[in-house]
Amino acid sequence: MATAENPLLVFVSSVMDKRVEDLSPERDAAVRAIDSLPITRSWAFEYSPASADAVDESYLEKVDECDIFLLILGAELTDPVEREYARAAAFGKRRLVFVQNVDQRSPRATEWLSERHDVKYQRFQGPDDLSDHVQGAVVDEVIKSHRRLNLREKDYEQLVTKLRSEPVTFMVRTIEARELADITATSPELEELYPNFQAWVDGKTVEISGGSANAYVATYGQENAGFALVSDKDPGVRKLSTLYIKPRYQGLGVGPRLLYGVIAQAAHDNIVKIYLTVSEERRDTLEGLLTQFGFFVEGVAGRRYREGSWEWIWSKRLIHGRLRRKQLAKFATRYLLEERGFIVERISRSLYKAHPRYHALGHIAPGINNNLLMAVSTGDADRDFRIARSAAADLACQLLFVSIEPLESEDPDDACICLDGLDLETLFFPLYIERSADGLIIPIRETFVQRLIPPSDQSQFLAPTRVQLRIDNVYYRYPTVYAGLKRGSSLFFYETQRKQGQSRLIGEGKLLQHAVDKPQDLLAEFGRLGVYSLSDLKDVTIRGGPNKGKALALRFGWYREIGSPLALRQIRQVLPTFDPMTARRISPMKVLELRRLAGWNVAPLSFR
């Protein structure tokens, strides 16, 4: 049993030879963070006692004994570090990897990092930044493993408390032209991105004044944490000229919140395409973020801004309106394949063979197999997937499986690309897709709204709770009225117990995941999301029946704010018997009517 008297062991691995790289400040910071927790202690080679064992055996034995393996990667990688990591992987140890932002990484370290598909690593800027990340990650990992580690409840509650942040305000706001010079001055690293920085600032100031550009700043506490600037190009086309997050705020969720603000505003303005260029040196930093929001690589441009450099051109298509089930095949053919340069051949009612029109070196050379088989499903996704996978194997094609409903039981392998309705809505936001799944209206207190849901151009108070700056979050409640919900179901939030004014429907999120379980297991699964403590969660557990002692977690994302929140009398135009104090499941048709009432475009898409 893990207690303060019998602490869990966290092995700290990194380059040790200062002639290769001096990571001693980072190692010290990690050790302090681990040892500050009530039930963990660190093991670092420099603090270990003398041993008669061979050096290699002494530290590898500690890898075998540890509960958590923690690796700090800087610019270099050495044989001992690789051996330690391989040993930890072989023994099935839980592994946490922290990668320092450096100007240049050695080819060996770069290659090793590119192969790390087995863990999700966290970037950091310096020792202080690392200390915060290490403490949070170790606590998260211990909580997730509370059953395996046989964690006592009082120790569990102590660790949950450790996840609470200091009170701070956060907001994404639009800035005026006169503010641009002062805000960019707080981020001197921006100058490295533009050859003539001052001329760039002056030009963008003029564009903002003239209304052809807008700038956004993310403010964390009293400091500017991130900056974005957009410029309108052709009608309906918007360029994201700048997306920059200060290094110390990377990994906190500032970037996703800032980028989502840009996309949500573009949707409001009826923009149909957003694009940006990313220099090769920044690609590794931004690729994950852009992919998460549905951007894809549209091309590569050499010497676009300076000699000896190249830029990756990323774009996102915004589609306004409602996709009917019967339109899925035509939609996927056009927007997933033809617009991305594929030649498409229909081979059956639901199967399409496709190959790219061009290869990077010109026309596709004979013998190069870039064939895709796209299968489209509007019914039983699991059954259709099994059929499509067999057909793709027969045709020696990679499978692209596109469905309205999510896969429930089938487990696709790495050779398959699977996109369901929620994936398509993410790629083409603000697209709305007809589903057979029900939605849900959830009453939520104003105090929880302020912590869970990002308002536009308003300061959000991040109270000392488990909330994290992310575009997804978790709302916990009694495990009732969740039958019929699926991934992608609409969740409408009805704000209650307001300090001023009447209760109202304020926005809609998309259900990413739901789970019914005991409070400890829900907190373990959803990490820092949500605003409930362990005791709060116990208050929403059900007292009897098959779910006795359990609560419901609803993880949601892609929250969309209603410009003019809906009053009770308006909601009752759609749902005459709506009770504002009770969660209510609603049919797909009523979801559509509520979206129409919110003023969102739900007109059926048309294809010429």
Overall average pLDDT = 87
Biggest sheet, strands in spatial order?
A: 11-12-10-9-8-7-6-23
| Number of distinct helices | 18
| Helix vs. strand class | alpha/beta
- Biggest pleated-sheet summary: 8 strands, mixed
Q: How would you portray this structure in words?
A:
The protein is an alpha/beta fold. It folds into 4 domains: about 10-160, 3-Layer(aba) Sandwich (Rossmann fold), CATH 3.40.50; about 170-315, Gcn5-related N-acetyltransferase (GNAT) (Aminopeptidase), CATH 3.40.630.30; about 320-430, no CATH class; about 435-595, Archaeosine Trna-guanine Transglycosylase, Chain: A, domain 4. The chain is built from 18 helices and 28 strands. It has an 8-stranded mixed beta sheet with strand order 11-12-10-9-8-7-6-23, with helices on both faces. The chain has a 6-stranded mixed beta sheet with strand order 24-27-26-25-22-28. A 5-stranded parallel beta sheet has the order 2-1-3-4-5, sandwiched between helices. Strand 7 (about 215-220) and strand 8 (about 225-230) form a beta hairpin. Helix 1 (about 25-35) crosses helix 5 and helix 5 packs antiparallel against helix 15 (about 520-525). The mean pLDDT is about 85.
Summarize this structure as a short list of keywords or feature phrases.
alpha/beta, Aminopeptidase, 4 domains, 8-stranded mixed beta sheet, 6-stranded mixed beta sheet
List the helices and strands and how they pair.
Elements: E1 8-13, H1 24-35, E2 40-43, H2 55-65, E3 68-73, H3 79-90, E4 94-100, H4 107-114, E5 122-124, H5 127-144, H6 153-162, E6 168-175, H7 180-185, H8 197-210, E7 213-220, E8 223-232, E9 237-245, H9 254-268, E10 273-279, H10 280-292, E11 296-302, E12 310-317, E13 322-323, H11 328-337, E14 342-346, E15 351-356, E16 358-359, E17 362-363, E18 372-377, H12 381-394, E19 398-403, E20 416-419, H13 421-427, E21 432-433, E22 439-445, H14 446-452, E23 460-462, E24 473-477, E25 490-496, E26 504-517, H15 519-526, H16 534-538, E27 551-566, H17 568-574, E28 584-586, H18 588-597
Parallel strand pairs: 1-2, 1-3, 3-4, 4-5, 9-10, 13-21, 18-19, 19-20, 22-25
Antiparallel strand pairs: 6-7, 6-23, 7-8, 8-9, 10-12, 11-12, 14-15, 15-18, 16-17, 22-28, 24-27, 25-26, 26-27
